[in-house]
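User: Can you recover a sequence for this backbone? Please restate the input before giving your answer.

Assistant: Of course. Working from this structure:
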């Protein structure tokens, strides 16, 4: 049985007090969804510690949205994976399309970040996905394959066992446009095939999340698909009720 995951990417939203309130709201409502669903919240760096405190004693886990490519040293403004781990984070989102697009994050950087994430006992949530032009040109399979080959294929078998993939079509992120459940299943199954070509049967155990305008009203249909193991949630993760409501998609 693959892990079922609903992870919230808060992006650059919430002030510390708001983040703590949101985390407390998620904890308060968490019991409405079975323990078989893993909930993860990924706040901004600035309030990871306070949110960690708010999550204490709950089974809502903590993740960061990024980490540095280097271990430590003279890298002004960067946050090391070791620092994130020390605050109680278990996960780190890597390769989000916003980081690839706005901050020029390349496969080379992502490979270094991956190294740091594993060196510090964290689990990467590695994002892949095509933009609208690539989808319209029918290149979405090739784009995802390349994003996997250039980073995930460099992992050891041991590291691969501790990896979460998020398929996030860029055209669906924050746009209100969602991939259909069929589109999601088609590409998730393909991604699993690509993973299997390198890691064999272990690919069956790798959670692949869907991300892109996922909300309580469409989660059940998408999560019902065989190769969709949950969601990476942006906008709807900023309201505890919606975030938990998405998790309820597994119970429909
Ligand atoms: C995201 O950016 O990871 C995301 C899925 O955003 P949204 O849910 O807002 O489309």
């Amino acid at each position: 049985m693959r892990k079922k995951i609903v992870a919230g990417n808060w992006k650059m939203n919430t002030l510390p007090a708001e983040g703590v309130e949101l985390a407390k709201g998620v904890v308060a409502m968490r019991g409405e969804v079975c323990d078989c669903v893993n909930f993860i919240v990924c706040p901004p760096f600035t309030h990871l510690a306070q949110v960690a405190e708010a999550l204490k004693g709950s089974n809502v886990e903590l993740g960061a949205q990024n980490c540095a490519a280097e271990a430590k040293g003279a890298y002004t403004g960067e946050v090391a994976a070791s620092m994130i781990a020390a605050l109680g984070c278990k996960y780190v989102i890597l390769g989000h399309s916003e980081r690839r697009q706005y901050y020029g994050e390349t496969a080379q950087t992502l490979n270094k970040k991956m190294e740091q994430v594993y060196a510090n006992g964290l689990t990467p949530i590695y994002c892949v996905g095509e933009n609208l032009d690539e989808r319209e040109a029918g290149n979405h399979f090739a784009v995802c394959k390349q994003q996997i080959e250039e980073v995930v294929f460099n992992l050891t078998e041991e590291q691969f066992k501790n990896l979460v993939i998020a398929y996030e079509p860029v055209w669906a992120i924050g746009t209100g446009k969602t991939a259909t459940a069929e589109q999601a299943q088609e590409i998730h199954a393909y991604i699993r095939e690509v993973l299997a070509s390198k890691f064999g049967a272990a690919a069956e155990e790798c959670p692949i999340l869907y991300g892109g305008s996922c909300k309580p009203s469409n989660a059940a249909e998408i999560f019902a698909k065989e190769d969709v193991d949950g969601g990476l949630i942006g906008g709807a993760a900023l309201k505890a009720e919606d975030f938990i409501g998405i998790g309820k998609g597994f119970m429909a």
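That completes the design. The pocket of phosphoenolpyruvate is lined by residues 9, 168, 173-174, 211-214, 232-236 (CB under 6 Å).
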